């Protein structure tokens, strides 16, 4: 599942640490200095930190709003779907379609919890540019899908992202709420699983992540299927993968 509580891979992120607005910047590739540092650490060698720069915070910049999709049929257990943002593309198979929207970019309000082990600096520093993304998940099959507590767990990464886990984000509840983004799809008072996604029904989740202009975004979406008791059934769960390009 991809609004902003503890830091984890798919789209739910959190973070605050330190006071320095400094992070490794792009030289050819933003994350290559980090990847080199990680490889050197694994080899038990000592490395220096990459090129650093202090970034001046600037105002949030929403992407142009478009209306390629909708109206949506909301799942009865989910928050209402909105497709505000620029449609980047889809990841889909015969059962599930995930439509990806770039909603805005903005300066990060906090440092990330995750730090570069080479120098202890936050991977996302306060003031660094982050991108806000919306994922609309739709059942395009003719059969209902019973989802577990994880519903559809989305993990994203850039090709040169150096860590095993997916892209991280920061805690930014006010910023996420401004654009109607939440990292959990559930409406208030939602009961326990299974969460039945009827044919044609949709729900949405949001994510914030480090922004790389025009970068390829790799998406892996684990569809968490449950049995009638609400317990995850790994034998019925599956994963979709695909890519879109950021603006």
Account of the protein in words:
With 247 residues, this protein is mainly beta. It has one domain (22-245). Helix content is 7%, strand content 34%. It contains two helices and twelve strands. The protein has helices spanning 32-42, 173-178; strands at residues 22-24, 52-54, 61-62, 73-74, 86-92, 96-107, 129-139, 145-157, 195-197, 201-210, 216-225, 238-245. The strands form three sheets. Strands 3, 4, 5, 6, 7 and 10 form a six-stranded mixed beta sheet that branches. A four-stranded antiparallel beta sheet has the order 9-8-11-12, with no helix packed on it. Strands 1-2 form a two-stranded antiparallel sheet. A hairpin with a 3-residue loop joins β5 (86-92) and β6. It is globular and about 50 Å long. Keywords: Membrane, Transmembrane, Transmembrane helix. The chain crosses the membrane at residues 34-54.
Portion in helices:
under 10%
Give the overall shape, derived from the CA principal axes. globular
Overall pLDDT confidence: 81
Order of helices and strands: EHEEEEEEEHEEEE
Tally the structural domains: 1
| Gyration radius from CA atoms, angstroms | 18 Å
Continuous helix count: 2
Biggest beta sheet attributes: 6 strands, mixed
How far apart lie the N and C ends? 22 Å
Structural class of the secondary structure composition?
mainly beta
Number of beta strands: 12
Q: Segments where pLDDT lies below 50 for 5+ residues? A: 3-28, 35-68
Q: How much strand?
A: 25-35%
């Amino acid at each position: 599942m991809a609004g902003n509580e503890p830091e984890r891979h798919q789209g739910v992120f959190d973070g605050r640490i330190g006071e320095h607005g400094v992070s490794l910047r792009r030289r050819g590739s933003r994350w290559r200095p980090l990847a080199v540092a990680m490889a050197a650490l694994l080899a038990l060698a000592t490395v220096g930190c990459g090129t650093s720069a202090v970034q001046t915070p600037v105002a949030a910049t929403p992407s142009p709003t478009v209306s390629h999709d909708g109206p949506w049929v909301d799942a009865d257990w989910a928050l209402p779907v909105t497709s505000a943002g620029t449609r980047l593309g889809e990841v889909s198979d015969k059962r599930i379609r995930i439509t990806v929207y770039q909603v805005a970019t903005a300066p990060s309000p906090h440092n990330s919890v995750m730090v570069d082990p080479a120098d202890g600096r936050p991977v996302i520093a306060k003031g660094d540019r982050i991108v806000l993304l919306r994922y609309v998940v739709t059942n395009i099959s003719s059969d209902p899908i019973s989802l577990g507590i994880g519903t559809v767990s989305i993990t994203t990464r850039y090709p040169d992202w150096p860590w095993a886990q997916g892209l991280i984000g920061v805690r930014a509840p006010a910023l996420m709420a401004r654009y109607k983004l939440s990292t959990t799809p559930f409406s208030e008072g939602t009961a326990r699983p299974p969460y039945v996604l009827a044919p044609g029904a949709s729900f949405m989740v949001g994510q914030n992540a480090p922004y790389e202009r025009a970068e390829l975004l790799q998406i892996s979406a684990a569809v968490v299927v449950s049995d009638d008791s609400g317990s995850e059934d790994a034998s019925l769960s599956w994963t979709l993968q695909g890519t879109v390009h950021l603006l």
